[in-house]
């Protein structure tokens, strides 16, 4: 794997291409002026780097001082095959590659790394956290499918599971997953929210909870202060 390309855009974000053989996967790197950490996003099935929900959360995190990487987990050809969007080992490989890109890239090298996964992307994020170990500082799942991850007991990364209160089936899956996680963990329920958090204020609650969690476990300045 190499570390792809970065191209400055007019709005201050960075268009990126993450080379994970055999593909260059397009994405966007959002950079605050003095990053506290970097959060890599994993979108859900049927989505991509343009997911309005992930883009919204990424922008909230940028305003809180976190660099964010939102990218396509699959090439266009791969995404056309429905089997691939549920291929968790494949999606995990892409997440691990993107994390390694963030760990080595010029703009984010040396920053604490967090993961944010939605739906099936949460399973890939959890698997990646299990594989990368202490290279990942924190993880947030939004409406995730942790039941699709096969290594939950190996995840010691501080993990926040956010689920809509009206998303009953997913809520049950996340409650079961919470009991299997080994590290610091929390289940946060957004009252009356459904799977896509489309209700007024629901996505704001997700973004605020994610910012607080990453600030606690993935914020470089906070971590430095705790060591003093």
Number of strands: 9
Main β-sheet, spatial strand arrangement: 1-2-3-5-4-6-7-8-9
Question: What is the H/E string?
Answer: EEEEHEHHEHEEHEHH
Structural class: alpha/beta
- C-alpha Rg, in Å? 16 Å
* Mean pLDDT over all positions: 89
Main pleated sheet: 9 strands, mixed
What is the CATH topology?
Rossmann fold
The CATH superfamily label reads Alpha/Beta hydrolase fold, catalytic domain
- List the domain count as a whole number: 1
* CATH architecture assignment: 3-Layer(aba) Sandwich
The level 1 CATH classification is: Alpha Beta
Strand content: 15-25%
Helix content: 25-40%
N-C termini distance: 37 Å
pLDDT under 50 segments (min length 5)? 1-11, 221-228
Helix segment tally = 7
Globally, the shape reads globular
Features:
228 residues; alpha/beta; Rossmann fold; nine-stranded mixed beta sheet; 36% helix; 24% strand
Description:
- The chain is an alpha/beta fold.
- It has a single domain, classed as Rossmann fold (3-Layer(aba) Sandwich), CATH 3.40.50.
- The protein has seven helices and nine strands; from the N terminus they run ββββαβααβαββαβαα.
- Strands 1-2-3-5-4-6-7-8-9 form a nine-stranded mixed β-sheet, sandwiched between helices.
- α1 (52-63) crosses α6 and α3 packs across α4 (120-132).
- The model is unreliable at 1-11 and 221-228 (pLDDT under 50).
How do the helices and strands line up, and which of them pair or pack?
Layout (H helix, E strand, L loop, with lengths): L4 E4 L5 E7 L2 E8 L6 E6 L9 H12 L2 E6 L4 H4 L8 H17 L8 E6 L1 H13 L5 E5 L16 E6 L3 H13 L4 E6 L11 H16 L2 H8 L1
